[in-house]
């Protein structure tokens, strides 16, 4: 399935708009990962634990959106937008949400 942030698929004609499709993933922040990320911040470098958690959440949200588009019979999702939001009373959770328009191509 073609997934793109653009409003069209180059060289293909949209024959039907099937509707907006979404995907979400919410991840909790792990205390140990926070601790080691803090140490990493002090000595410098990138926080691999957080990067992997973000990557996993993004992929899960993308898979959910792709599955929703497949259920509608879509060939592609256009106009994709990806957002990150911190949630929770103590900002202990991160939400990754993605949405786009499912379409049939000619």
> Percent range for helical residues?
25-40%
Tell me the number of strands: 4
Estimate the mean pLDDT confidence.
Answer: 85
In the predicted model, the low-confidence regions spanning at least 5 consecutive residues are none
Rounded to an integer, what's the Rg over CA atoms? 17 Å
Q: What is the level 1 CATH name?
A: Alpha Beta
Q: What portion of the residues fall into strands of 2 or more residues? A: 35-45%
Q: How does this model look, in words?
A:
This is UPF0145 protein N825_06680. Pfam families: YbjQ_1 (PF01906). Belongs to the UPF0145 family. It comes from Skermanella stibiiresistens SB22. InterPro entries: UPF0145_dom_sf, UPF0145_YbjQ-like. With 106 residues, the protein is α+β, with helices and mostly antiparallel strands. It has one domain (2-105): Hypothetical protein apc22750. Chain B (Translation Initiation Factor IF3, 2-Layer Sandwich), CATH 3.30.110. It has 2 helices and 4 strands; from the N terminus they run E-E-H-H-E-E. The protein has helices spanning 31-43, 48-71; strands at residues 2-3, 14-28, 76-87, 93-105. It has a 4-stranded mixed sheet with strand order 1-3-4-2. A hairpin with a 5-residue loop joins strand 3 (76-87) and strand 4 (93-105). The longest helix has 24 residues, at 48-71. The radius of gyration is 17 Å and the shape is elongated. The model has no long low-confidence stretch (mean pLDDT 85).
